[in-house]
Design brief:
The chain has 3 helices and 8 strands. Strands 1, 2, 3, 4, 5, 6, 7 and 8 form an 8-stranded antiparallel sheet that branches. 22% of the residues lie in helices and 42% in strands. The longest helix has 13 residues. The radius of gyration is 15 Å and the shape is globular. It is α+β, with helices and mostly antiparallel strands.
Amino acid sequence: MEQTGTQTIVDYLTSVPAWYLATCEGDQPHVRPFSFAALQDGEIQFCTATTKDCYREMQAIPRVELTAWKPGRGWIILRGRANLEDRANATVREEGFKHMVALGEDWDDPADPRLTFFTIDDAEAWLCDIDGSWNPIEL
């Protein structure tokens, strides 16, 4: 079976220790490390907390961009509009919960209302290289 673009992106993001998500607060970009991505029903699920600045920033201005670099593989860029409707299923929610706890975050359980999942709508993605190439990833 041929690998989808979304699976390619999840495989890339989960193969590096951290990737970086950019949001905006007014005209000020904010970039921070993330490290959870999972595929569910053809969509990439990301997780954060409703109590974090990045969540409030995505509520106000949903445009986001993420990037990661892996030596020998170039870097990946994914941009679009954050969809904060939490549609994570029980499996993804459990995976996200365990991942966040392993990072040292404090959660009651996978159903903790502060733990939330989001997707990126109207997404565009590329695999880029030092030679200046931006190779589109079909989503």
